[in-house]
Recover the amino acids of this structure.
């Protein structure tokens, strides 16, 4: 029988960019996890970095390892449901990357199977721990801008060329920029304000030969009068502020300044003292009105902390703490994503 403080032996289903950057560094660094195995079908890069691991060439072989308790499902979008179900039936907990599933119905089937098997079905939404988003959350929690009226969230990139990841660039479940980048922003929104009462959705395609949406926008309306605009695009040469909040007493503007992805790509350990610390020259800007006069001040961001995702996973699996991403939040997100018109 497993002890409450015993490490969670973990298998990762892919060692592509997400496995290499967003998962294995944290599993390896967290004292309550053991990076046990990784699936690499043709290469052997993971063992160069983590010589202690077992390398498998198939998902099925990894799932047959009885030592593994948790499986990270970070395979192509349209395989998440299939592999998560296989892992659950093999008696594993699962941590599933975004998009969690193509539809709410498929997501619900995973939650139901997890309950039947007595295993946790967890969503990986690391960008709730971006430093720039945490800045916005702190401003909202403080109520310093008064009642929120309007909020803009953006995720801008410029990539005219069609990407090499077929599962993102061809017509298949979970493809396109709304599922890819829009799911981050929609999750952040739902985590702050819950499910909107009405949604307007726009998707369009602008890159030559593109088969999927490369521009997407959502307008979310809430019963308290708040309107939220979510925009993501692969053709923005001049990225705009990622978070723009207007309230009854002021405004807050914050650019996408989280450094964690860049640090991880450079090889920095999550345990480094500078990990997650934004550059001091990129604070948010808070504008408040006093006696009819605008007063502005910079707001430094808190430290970004993707490690918190794995701490939450550990607390849920070992101590039954409610997970920070709720099933109803995933279902609300997918209800909106799946209904988006092309």
């Amino acid at each position: 029988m497993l002890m409450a403080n015993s490490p969670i032996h973990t298998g990762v289903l892919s060692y592509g960019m997400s496995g290499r950057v967003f998962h294995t560094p944290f599993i390896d660094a967290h004292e309550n996890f053991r990076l046990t195995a990784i699936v690499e079908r043709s290469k052997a890069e993971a063992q160069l970095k983590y010589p202690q691991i077992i390398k498998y060439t198939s998902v099925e072989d990894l799932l047959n390892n009885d030592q593994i308790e948790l499986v990270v499902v970070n395979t192509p979008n349209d395989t998440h449901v299939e592999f998560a179900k296989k892992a659950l039936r093999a008696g594993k907990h699962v941590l599933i990357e975004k998009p969690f599933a193509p539809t709410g119905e498929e997501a619900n089937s995973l939650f139901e199977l997890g309950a039947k098997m007595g295993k946790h079905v967890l969503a990986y939404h690391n960008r709730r721990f971006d430093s720039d988003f945490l800045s916005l959350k702190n401003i909202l929690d403080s109520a310093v801008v008064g009642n929120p009226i309007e909020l803009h969230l953006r995720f801008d990139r410029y990539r005219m060329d069609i990407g090499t990841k077929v599962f993102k660039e061809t017509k298949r479940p979970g493809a396109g920029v709304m599922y890819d980048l829009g799911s981050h922003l929609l999750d952040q929104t739902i985590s702050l304000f819950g499910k909107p009462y009405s949604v307007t959705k726009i998707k369009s395609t602008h890159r030559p030969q593109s088969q999927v949406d490369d521009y997407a926008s959502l307008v979310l309306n809430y019963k308290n009068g708040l309107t939220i605009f979510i925009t993501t695009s692969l053709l923005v040469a001049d990225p705009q502020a990622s978070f723009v909040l207007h309230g009854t007493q002021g405004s807050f503007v914050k650019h996408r300044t989280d450094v964690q992805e860049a640090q991880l790509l450079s090889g920095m350990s999550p345990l480094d003292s500078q990990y997650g610390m934004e550059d001091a020259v990129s604070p948010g800007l808070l504008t408040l009105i006093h006696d009819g006069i605008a007063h502005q001040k910079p707001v430094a961001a808190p430290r970004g902390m993707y490690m918190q995702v794995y701490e939450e996973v550990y607390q849920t699996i070992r101590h039954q703490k409610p997970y920070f991403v709720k099933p109803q939040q995933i279902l609300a997100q997918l209800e909106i994503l799946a209904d988006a018109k092309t």
